Amino acid sequence: MFRALVRRLGVREALVGRALIAFMAIGFLSLLAAGYAAYRSTTQNEQHSQAVNHTYEVEIAIDQASILIEQGETSRRGYLITAQPSYFDTYATVAAKVPAALTRIATLTADNPRQRANIARLTLIVADLKAQRDRTIALVKEGRQAEALRVFGEETAARRMRNIRELGSAMGDEERRLLAIRDAEQRESLRTFYGTLIVAAILLLLVAIASLLTVLRYTRDLAASRDVLRDFADSLEGLVNERTADLSRANEEIQRFAYIVSHDLRSPLVNVMGFTAELDAATAAITDLIDRAEEKAPDIVTEEARLAAREDLPEAIRFIRTSTQKMDRLINAILKLSREGRRLIAPEPLDLNAMVDAIGGSLKHLIDDRGATLNVEGSLPPITSDRLAVEQIFSNLIENAVKYLDPKRPGWIIVRGKREGVRVTYEIEDNGRGIAPGDHQRVFDLFRRSGHQDQPGEGIGLAHVRALAYRLGGVIDVASDLGKGATFRLTLPLTLADPQDNRS
After folding, report:
1. pTM tops 0.90, yes or no
2. Angle, in degrees to the nearest 10, between helices 387-403 and 352-362
3. What are the pLDDT digits (tens) for 111-150?
4. Contact 447/460 with Cβ under 8 angstroms?
5. Cβ atoms < 10 Å from Cβ of 80
6. What is the DSSP letter of 461?
7. Contact 428, 415 (CB under 8 A)
8. Cα–Cα distances in Å, from 444 out to 345, 385, 439, 462, 463?
9. Which residues, in sequence order, are CB contacts of 489 under 8 Å at separation 6+?
10. Closest CA to 31 of 265, 178, 206, 196
11. Distant-in-sequence, close-in-space partners of 238: CB < 8 Å, separation ≥ 6
12. Do the bridges between strand 423-430 and strand 383-386 make them parallel or antiparallel, or are there none, so unpaired?
């Protein structure tokens, strides 16, 4: 039931997560679209405002040029009729401003081909008109006023002025036409902007509703799952205690079985060792008898008897004794593991720096004999754990590192440690022979060893180390390559719970 619940919650959570991500993506895209529309609308509004201002500037420039031309024509007529200098002064002042006014119009309309054509025609007409004006004014200045009036009456000034007015009106119409086009574009831009805002708002509303419904449904599922988990948790503690008790009983049975088996194996082994000693004594007597028989009656001693007494029997007894000694060591190791498993763990604060220094002192003769060095890198983090078990772990690992150093190069062993949350990791690194990758796990198995065996041992040490690490709530592994040394990594809890507290 618990696994099914967890699996269902996991699937539901994954679906809800994907749905919420999709809704967020849609909402984000909607906001981007609205922002882009606002940007476009703002930009076009600025462009439209600039266009409107430009239109007004062109119209004002056209009106100013038209007024100047009209004022120039009026002041000229007054001068022709009255010959008073004041009219001429006015005409001269106005005529001097006309070129600048035309230049301004040309500058403002330089981007419009139609307006450039209009201003070109206007410039020609104004130039022709100015030439006629200068001619009549010159006649008045010469005192030939009657002739000046006759020339004025014959010239086509009225037609020129009408053309100028028509050109000014056409140029104004062109600017208003452009303004109308820009107004239409502005209205279209506003419609697009508002349409985008409406669509984005609808999408955001739909996304908000869908997200709310999804969250509400997921919340209801979580509430139901929480009720199921609460009911399961109520029974979980009892189930865990029951399973823990079963495991403890099974572990105790295994330990008792190992102890009984080891004890029962020792009885026949003691008999075998005893009879082996008797056979050894008997072999000595037989050998002595063969020696005397060879001295007194060599003919009665056969070659088979001589070989049996002097070679076969001693060799067989030697093999038996070697095997029984090895079996005795194995039984002792099993008894040691069994006793260690039954020993009560007693956590206490441990100073790992002092402990490693003490271990190095006890192994100083072996380390010096190998020409090696033992160093602690930095400061080792303290822990609260079982002193005897931790000492056995570090002693075994450091002693193994010293035993399996490569005699071809100076050896070194480095011990380091670091805290990682509520756990501490210690590393014992050496530059020794190394361990083949295929043997990284088997070296922790009971009675299993790796590589060339030129050191005494039964393959129990690392198995004992792993068992102790497990019992202390930790793990141990190794990283190594042949010929490149090995690094044993031990991870232990920062504080080991007191078994007495667990049983209370």
Report:
1. no
2. 50
3. 888 878 888 888 888 887 778 777 888 877 887 877 777 7
4. yes
5. 22
6. H
7. yes
8. 22, 22, 9, 5, 5
9. 425, 426, 427, 476, 477, 478, 479
10. 196
11. none
12. unpaired
Bridge partners for 412 per DSSP? 373
Nearest residue to 425 via CA among 479, 488, 347, 373 = 488
Strand partners, 228: none
What mean pLDDT, rounded, does the chain reach?
77
All residues at 6 or more sequence positions from 115 whose CB lies less than 8 Å from its CB, including other chains: 58, 105, 109, 171, 174, 175
Which string of DSSP letters, residue by residue, matches 213-256?
A: HHHHHHHHHHHHHHHHHHHHHHHHHHHHHHHHHHHHHHHHHHHH
Tell me the per-residue pLDDT of 59-69, one tens digit each, with 9 for 90 and over: 788 888 888 87
Cα torsion 476, 479, 480, 486 to 10°: value is -60
Query: Reading across the β-sheet that carries 423-430, which strands appear in turn?
Result: 372-376, 411-420, 423-430, 486-493, 475-480
Q: Percentages helix, strand, coil for the chain, rounded to the nearest 5?
A: 75, 10, 15
- The residue behind tokens 């009209």 is 70
E-strand stretches of 407-497: 411-420, 423-430, 475-480, 486-493
Tokens describing residue 406: 């490569």
Q: Using DSSP, state whether 411 is helix, strand or coil.
A: strand
Tell me the angle at which helices 85-108 and 2-82 cross, rounded to the nearest 10 degrees: 160
